[in-house]
From TrEMBL:
<keyword id="KW-0472">Membrane</keyword>
<dbReference type="GO" id="GO:0035435">
    <property type="term" value="P:phosphate ion transmembrane transport"/>
</dbReference>
<feature type="transmembrane region" description="Helical">
    <location>
        <begin position="273"/>
        <end position="295"/>
    </location>
</feature>
<keyword id="KW-0812">Transmembrane</keyword>
<feature type="transmembrane region" description="Helical">
    <location>
        <begin position="90"/>
        <end position="111"/>
    </location>
</feature>
<keyword id="KW-1133">Transmembrane helix</keyword>
<feature type="transmembrane region" description="Helical">
    <location>
        <begin position="131"/>
        <end position="151"/>
    </location>
</feature>
<dbReference type="GO" id="GO:0005315">
    <property type="term" value="F:phosphate transmembrane transporter activity"/>
</dbReference>
<dbReference type="InterPro" id="IPR000515">
    <property type="entry name" value="MetI-like"/>
</dbReference>
<dbReference type="InterPro" id="IPR035906">
    <property type="entry name" value="MetI-like_sf"/>
</dbReference>
<feature type="domain" description="ABC transmembrane type-1">
    <location>
        <begin position="86"/>
        <end position="291"/>
    </location>
</feature>
<keyword id="KW-0813">Transport</keyword>
<protein>
    <recommendedName>
        <fullName>Phosphate transport system permease protein PstA</fullName>
    </recommendedName>
</protein>
<feature type="transmembrane region" description="Helical">
    <location>
        <begin position="201"/>
        <end position="222"/>
    </location>
</feature>
<dbReference type="InterPro" id="IPR005672">
    <property type="entry name" value="Phosphate_PstA"/>
</dbReference>
<keyword id="KW-1003">Cell membrane</keyword>
<feature type="transmembrane region" description="Helical">
    <location>
        <begin position="157"/>
        <end position="180"/>
    </location>
</feature>
């Protein structure tokens, strides 16, 4: 309701223009300060990252060639390669990705779409979130106790994949739940109103819309798993091996283990080999992430 002219004139007296102007200027100065603080943090992070990349590339760039990728480990640095570690890492990825996708996404769908909203469900969700922050060596101890000693899988590729898969599952479940929650409820209601069942709505409407977020979670989880060393050391992955895995029960080694082995050698040549191994590991990671980002963007544009 519009105020009479006399009342409007009186309300103008309640506004102290000088105080308001001073507060606005103070907030703008504070905004500038925080902007430069955040910029300094970004610049510092980029400088550290650039220094690390420069150090790795200058030390190991000259050692990366076809022989380095095809050779087996050797006590002579000039003849050493990481072929078994590269094959072992690929075996791990081939087992981990389907496992975390089926189990992790399945668990997220149940918790988000089917599970009753009660204290038990909340308790399970809180514990899954807490598991995402558990140190990786704890999962290594779990793998050693359960998969190596109890199940009798030994120091095999299957043990490594199950251990790293368990470590990745909480991240995949939490990310998948967030992706499923982001799907608009109107889409579910529209599908159900057309006569679709709960499963048809979930599989044909909700899951495709949430797939970009789910793939992002799997990328982060698998990227963490591929660079982990502690769980593989705990389950007894080989640090020196002259064969490549030919089934899921074969002994294996992986890129982080091979790099760790080389960094523990006193000779300077093996430090360069470790840097070359890091370059290969980073290349594998970037290739996997690029493929996943392509898939994510494709589904994002579609849905």
């Amino acid at each position: 309701m519009a105020l009479p002219n006399s009342e409007f004139k009186n309300t103008k007296n309640y506004i102290d223009h000088e105080t308001v102007s001073r507060r606005i200027k103070s907030r703008l100065r504070l905004n500038e300060v925080f902007k430069y603080i955040f910029l300094a943090g970004l610049v510092f992070a980029l400088l550290v990252l650039s220094t690390l990349i420069y150090d790795v590339v200058t030390k190991g760039g000259g050692w990366v060639n076809l022989d380095f990728l095809r050779n087996f480990p050797s006590r002579r640095a000039a003849q050493a390669g990481l072929y078994p570690a590269l094959i072992g890492t690929l075996w791990l990825m081939m087992l981990i990705v389907p496992m975390v996708f089926i189990v992790g996404v399945g668990a997220a769908i149940y918790l988000e779409e089917y599970a009753p909203k009660n204290r038990i469900t909340s308790f399970i969700e809180v514990n899954i979130s807490n598991l995402a922050g558990v140190p990786s060596i704890v999962f290594g101890l779990l793998g050693l106790t359960f998969f190596v000693r109890t199940a009798g899988f030994g120091n095999s590729v299957l043990t490594g994949a199950l251990t790293l898969g368990l470590m990745s599952l909480p991240i995949v479940i939490v990310a998948s739940q967030e992706a499923l929650r982001s799907v608009k409820m109107e889409l579910r209601h529209a599908s159900l109103a057309l006569g679709a069942s709960k499963w048809q709505t979930t599989f044909n409407v909700v899951l495709p819309s949430a797939l970009p977020g789910i793939i992002t979670g799997i990328i982060l989880a698998v990227s963490r798993a591929i660079g982990e060393t502690a769980p593989l050391i705990m389950i007894g992955a080989a640090t020196f091996i002259s064969t490549t895995p030919n089934n899921i029960f074969s002994d294996f080694t992986a890129l982080p283990i091979q790099i760790y082995n080389w960094t523990s050698r006193p000779q300077a040549e093996f430090q360069n080999l470790a840097a070359a191994g890091i370059i290969v590991l980073m290349t594998v990671l970037i290739t996997m992430n690029s493929a996943a980002i392509y898939i994510r963007n494709k589904y994002t544009n579609r849905h």
